[in-house]
Amino acid sequence: MVRIRASAAAAGLLGLAACRSVNSGPDYDRAVDEISSVTGAESVFHPDTAPAAIEQRVGDLLQDGLGLSEAVELGLLNNPALQASFRDVGMAHADRVQASLLTNPSLTAALRFPISGDASEFEGGLFGSLLDIWQVPERERIADHALQHRVFELAHRAALLASDIRVAYVETTSSDRLLEIAKENRESAKHLFELAEARLAAAAGTTIDANLARLELLETEVALLDAELAAGEARRRLLALLGLGPQDGRPRLVEALDERPLPLLPRGELEALALARRLDVRAAQEAVHQATAEAERQRGLLLRNVDVGVAAEKAGDWSLGPGVHIELPIFDQNQAQVAKALEALSQREMVLVATRLAATQEVTSALACAEASWDALAIYREDILTRSAETLAQARQSYQLGKTTILPALEAQRQLLAARSAYARRLLQAATALSDLERATGTPREHLLKKRMKEGGL
To answer: Which has more pLDDT, 106 or 414?
Structure first.
């Protein structure tokens, strides 16, 4: 007896399905385009780019010093963690290809030897799933959403990396500035100490004044050591984000921090940009679409196994006719998987709501911080620093002429040193808030400012 069953539909499509290849290049291109859009970087790492070309571009960026935008581009090209994240897109593309493939047909064969000694019998079967014809498009749709979700997640990681690089860049430049301030403070304390020593030598001052001036000088020297350590740590953090090591030297940072308020968009427009452009919001939206498609697919899986084909049997004469094999949904009607898919959909809808809310809150916080920092900078620049310098000059002159003790001069000096350091920290806070605003809106500062300048005719 010979028995053969085959799925006619699956057999007809088998040749086409077997020809599918795995090529992640176009998905990598989409990810690079998304990253360039939200970061403003001209060059971004691409897994298909030759390593020599990347090394050449990295060398070009480092050649004449790094501006802020160049540092972002360098990190997006050279950061190894980001390079590794690109492979998530490649794996999602492989899942997309897998979703488009038909289930492999199964072949069974058996050879039997009757005990009575009659002729041996052979049975065989070839089975394929009819439901694949309807299920493959649904699987592809779900895999498409999952792939797009991965692209958005990758681009979001890149946007966060760009934001971290901007913050590390301004922290490094700010730390360098604080280091220069610490050197100026030491020189100022040294000048006052030399003045106290000269007055003591001329019998016009006291040992107490000289000792107080020396203590102040020693404190500024300790502060200088701390500033040198902080500057080194900030630079090392920046190098790590850029994918550089100690062997790569110290790239020169050439862009100064903005000391004047920048023309930012109103809060409402910034929030609208965040909801439209932020990649975590778009990824959460794509996750909802994926969960919706999966819930619809699960609802359609009441029948999960339908095999059709032809059956042939030889029992004396050959007989041939259609055959069907159906799994009857009596006990398992896929109700559990439908419920699970609906729970997942509800969960992802709530995640989307939370993500959108967090985006608007981050915009509000970053904008408030930037505006407050710029207001404080104006007060320091236009009043506190000027008055502190004038007060110190007057106190030194009074002390030099013997009109006062050294205490007013020391107090005035401390006030000026504190004002200089506070101004530098406020400058860092404003620059960091601007970087946070870029991340919160998913928009490079060049685009934000360019848009506002065009509106204002600047």
So the answer is: 414
| Residue 2: inside a domain | no
Among residues 186, 275, 254, the alpha carbon closest in space to that of 223 is found at 186
Query: What is the DSSP secondary structure assignment for residue 130, as one 8-state letter?
Result: S
Compute the distance between CA of residue 204 and CA of residue 405 in angstroms, rounded to an integer.
Answer: 11
Cα 388–chain centre separation: 42
Domain assignment present for residue 1? The answer is no
Residues 420 and 385: beta-carbon distance below 8 Å: yes
Other C-beta atoms closer than 10 Å to the C-beta of 333 total 13
Residues 158 and 401 sit within 8 Å (Cβ to Cβ): no
Would you say residue 3 lies in a domain? no
Amino acid type, 221: E
Inside any domain, residue 192: yes
C-alpha distances (whole Å) from 394 to each of 200, 390, 409 are: 20, 6, 8
The domain that contains 427 carries what CATH number? Answer: 1.20.1600.10
pLDDT tops 70 at residue 12: no
Q: Considering only residues 366 and 107, tell me which one the structure prediction assigns the higher pLDDT.
A: 366
Question: What range defines the domain where residue 171 resides?
Answer: 8-455
Position 294 confidence tier, pLDDT thresholds 50, 70, 90: confident
Quick one: three-class SS letters along 315-383? ECEEEEEEEEEECCCCCCCCHHHHHHHHHHHHHHHHHHHHHHHHHHHHHHHHHHHHHHHHHHHHHHHHH
CA distances (Å), origin 272, targets 121, 261, 267, 363, 440: 74, 22, 9, 10, 11
The CA angle 241-246-250, to the nearest 5 degrees, is: 80
For the segment 48-64, the average pLDDT, to the nearest whole number, is: 89
In the numeric block, which tokens belong to residue 98? Answer: 């897998």
Q: Find how far residue 318's CA is from the centre of its chain.
A: 67
CB 3 within 8 A of CB 314: no
pLDDT of residue 204: 84
Q: Smallest Cα–Cα separation from 39: which of 452, 451, 445, 453?
A: 445
Domain count, the chain: 1
Q: Is the pLDDT of residue 264 over 90?
A: no
